[in-house]
Structure formats: structure tokens, C-alpha cells
Amino acid sequence: RKEVEQDPGPFNVPEGATVAFNCTYSNSASQSFFWYRQDCRKEPKLLMSVYSSGNEDGRFTAQLNRASQYISLLIRDSKLSDSATYLCVVEDSNYQLIWGAGTKLIIKP
Amino acid sequence: DAGITQSPRHKVTETGTPVTLRCHQTENHRYMYWYRQDPGHGLRLIHYSYGVKDTDKGEVSDGYSVSRSKTEDFLLTLESATSSQTSVYFCAISGGVRAGNTIYFGEGSWLTVV
Q: Diameter of chain B by CA atoms?
């Protein structure tokens, strides 16, 4: 079992819709959690950190469920520019970052 | 954008030849990393550095070596390239390892070993 697992997708979603995807992690001692965004043939960039209480940044909401060991990312009112691959990242107790393989999102007009 | 420059950005090389990728930062960050990214895998850490001349192995270090003689430069060397090392290589930097220290990536180096 991979330490951090994501549905690879692609998720094909019409513009304006709401989309959500999850990421599961295996190490219950994991400390911190992040979502990164990666455009095709570009470098990953931090989208948002995931806090225990959940957090929101505009149209994006991230949540953490420690009991079930997953984090989620919700995108409301999706835009064409949201098309990208979303990477889940988990920081373990040794401050090492464990990366998921990513979920590809395609927003269609 | 963080000041990270990778060179070369694209390279095709033959099996068995040595290859060096360079990462240069202008942010004076302490930590520097080399990752590789392959389809179906998350980013995998090759080596990292926590200061000048201070380096350590990551998850997939076999076949790779690194050096950091200056704060701003982190070199990744493939001593004898193999086809399995065909990949996209990303350099990254951060000010620390604790949460809150964002990791920033360079634009990537596409390496093809034929």
C-alpha cells in the first residue's frame, strides 16, 4: 500500500460545477498536510495547507479527517483555469514530505 | 516566484555517460532538495542538503550523488546514466523543515537517457 494515495482521475467537470477529491495516508503519526497544484510540464506550487479545523481560501476548501486518515479538497464554481493536477502531500514525524501521485482535473467549458 | 534556476532544462544523453544537473537559488534558503517525478509516482526525494557540505540520502538515492559547496548551488550527478533515470528532475528549496516553511520548486530538468 502506498503511503499517500490519490485517485489519478482524470476528473472531467463542467465549468461552474463543484468538484471534490480525497487523499488517503497510511501513517497515523503524520504531522502536516498540504495540497499543491501542478500545471502540465510545470513545477508544483503550494495551493494550501490543511489544518485540523479545516480551512478555506476563496473557492477552495481543504479538510482533514484524522480518524479516517484522509484529506480532501473541494473546489466550488470551477474555472477553466483550475484544470491541473492536484498533489497531496503529507509530512511525517521526521519532517519528510511524502507525495501522492496526483489527481488530474479537467474543467470543460 | 522563488529565485530557483535549474540547468540544463532539457538534456538527452547516452547510457553510461555522466550527467550533472545544477540548481541555483538566490533566496539564501538553508534546505535544498532534488526530486524526480515519474508517471504514476509521487515526487520522490533523491538527496537533500541542510547546509553547505551537509547532505543526506532520500528515498531513491542509488545511482545519484550530490554536492553543495556554496549555499546557492546544489549539484546532482548521475555517475553513469541508465535508461531508468529518464525522468523529470525538480530542485526545491525551503527555509526549514517544519510546517509553515513552504517548499518552492524550480522549473524542472527533463532528462532522457537513450
A: 41
